[in-house]
Design goal:
140 residues; alpha/beta; globular; binds adenosine-5'-triphosphate; Potassium transporter Trk; monoatomic cation transmembrane transporter activity
């Protein structure tokens, strides 16, 4: 059974999530405010739509309610990320994963009910540091 995911924001982070999910056979709706991003992903994902997700009616028209998991990968525009997350929450999305830009952004996202907040650069930095330590231990 295919599971449905929506990914909002097709930067490096959101784009790579779209690619991986699609390669694994998942049904992905990719959304971005910029047409060129949608053109880049329209042949990779099942559905690709140009939309501004800070508009509540747009989110409703997209039928976002029907998605079991929505990933918000809007980065620099923190206001758009927070507004989008808030509306997804109000629309009753069960699982919302959001990319945070900094610690304050993360705090707000947790307060408004994001289920999973990620900091790709920080999290990856931590992981690599631990890998370096364990490799060094094995080498000695
Ligand atoms: P990355 O590090 O993953 O490349 P980033 O942190 O630099 O991304 P941005 O490039 O600022 O993040 O945002 C990611 C995408 O989100 C962009 O392609 C941008 O067009 C899209 N985006 C920004 N605002 C909105 C919005 N209101 N609705 C939909 N998409 C949006």
């Amino acid at each position: 059974m295919k599971r449905e995911f929506a990914v909002i924001g097709l930067g490096r982070f959101g784009g790579s999530i779209c690619r991986e999910l699609s390669e694994e056979g998942m049904d992905v709706l990719a959304i971005d405010i910029h047409e060129e991003k949608i053109n880049e992903y329209k042949n990779i994902v099942a559905h690709a739509v140009i939309a501004d997700t800070t508009d509540e009616n747009t989110l409703k028209e997209l039928g976002i309610r029907n998605f079991e998991h929505v990933i918000v990968a809007i980065g620099e525009n923190i206001q758009a990320s927070i507004l989008t997350t808030l509306m997804l929450k109000e629309l009753g999305i069960k699982k919302i994963t959001v990319k945070a830009q900094n610690d304050y952004h993360e705090k707000v996202l947790n307060k408004i009910g994001a289920d999973h907040v990620v900091h790709p650069e920080r999290d990856m930095g931590r992981r690599i540091a631990h890998n370096i330590i364990s490799t060094n231990i094995l080498d000695h």
